[in-house]
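Morning run. Coffee first, then this:
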Amino acid sequence: MTDRTAIALENVNVRFGALTALNDVTLDIAQGKTTVLIGPSGCGKSTLLKAILHLVTPDAGTVKIDGAVMDARAVNVMRRRMGYVIQDGGLFPHLTARGNVTLMASYLGAAEADQAARLEKLIALTHFPADAMDRFPAELSGGQRQRVSLMRALMLDPEILLMDEPLGALDPMIRFDMQNELKEIFRTLSKTVVLVTHDMAEAMHFGDTVVLMNEGRIEQVGPGESLMRNPRSDFVARFIRSQRRELGELSR
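And here it is:
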């Protein structure tokens, strides 16, 4: 049985002046699965995530969410179907953890009782200490800030969760714990997840599908094991070799 497509990019090009960030990218992202975008710095993976959200507008091509074109007319409605976790969390420093998580729900006029009930579920899901909800981001640990960022992205119960290097700023021990917790959260929620990382071991830990990018193009798509065992280009083989140490640690 073929997986249903949640997000479809068709011949998408994004340019910033003379720089081509995405070069004729076509990709189907399966519903209810975790797709990981990986590649060296500047390869276009974060730009691809922003194109899905319409934070950058493609110069050519289309992005479709569940078959509907993502454009300026649809963007406000479509974005409510997606949660976004940016690099380093992106929390507002002047708001408490509670204020950060409930910001969009409050803006949209959700009842306080509904917000409280949703928040209680998210606290349990992310194992966040309830007594820390009234602390400001500067008073939280790195792992706690990431949990707040995740709760904020999930507050409106979106169908799609987009995550841009969500664990990149964490120290190794916290990162290891968060990797395992996030994978369990993904399994529990069964949402469509698109996650950006530069770490092949992390890509294989999370990804049902791994998308390896280079210079704005997709080099290879498939399960992580397929990329490792059957690289389709010299670049794929070199990228895998460059991450040999991390991949060796994953296999232990």
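The mean pLDDT is 92. Good start to the day.
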